[in-house]
Amino acid sequence: MDKNNIYTKAHLVVAAVRIWEYREANPPTVENICDMLSLSVEEGNRLCRKLKEHEVIDIIEKAGEARVFILDHLKLETLVGIKDSRRLDDELENFKKSRAEQSLKIEAIKMEQAEKKKKLHEILEKQLRENIKPS
Fold first, then answer.
1. Would you call 29 helix, strand, or coil by DSSP?
2. What is the pLDDT of residues 6-16, one digit of tens each?
3. 29 phi and psi, to 5 degrees?
4. What pTM was estimated for this model as a whole?
5. What is the CA 55 to chain-centroid distance, rounded?
6. What is the structure's pLDDT at 18?
7. Most buried among 7, 39, 97, 114, using CB within 10 Å?
């Protein structure tokens, strides 16, 4: 069983919500779910947002805290084929590409400026030679 796919993690989140509601008689916060599943809060928020997008759970914010409710646990089955892409990895890759493109542009500008400087020196040297010629 692959513990790192979205389908498995979604089932764990829904189970954690049910267990918390059974034990505490109130809906859990995202932090409660994260503590129960030993997840980071960031990962828990990411999972809960994903499950909210798929209408499996709902997150209600009230009095400065967000409580998690199960809407339709059967919609978990729609997550079977979804790859759990890491948005952070994707964003990092995009950032690296943009930095590489930016570096290429900077190098092109530097080369262009060096060429302009060289031409300017040639023009100034030519003018200086013409002005210094003995009459």
1. strand
2. 888 899 999 99
3. -90, 170
4. 0.59
5. 22
6. 95
7. 39
Residue type, 44: G
For residue 3, the model assigns a pLDDT of 64
Task: Determine the length of the chain.
Answer: 135
Buried b (16+ CB within 10 A) or exposed e, 64-85: eeebbebeeeebbeebeeeebe
pLDDT of residue 4: 67
Q: Do residues 36 and 52 lie in contact, with contact meaning Cβ atoms separated by under 8 Å?
A: no
Q: If you ran DSSP here, which 8-state letter would residue 76 be given?
A: G
Q: What are the beta bridge partners of residue 59?
A: 68
**How far apart, in whole angstroms, are the C-alpha atoms of residue 41 and residue 109?**
44
pLDDT tens profile 56-67 = 999 998 888 889
The whole-number average pLDDT for the span 67-87 is 79
- Quick one: tokens of 135? 């009459």
3-state helix, strand, coil in the chain (%, to 5): 70, 10, 20
- Paired tokens of 30: 């995202």
d(CA 112, CA 122): 15
Closest by Cα among 69, 91, 76, 94 to 5: 76
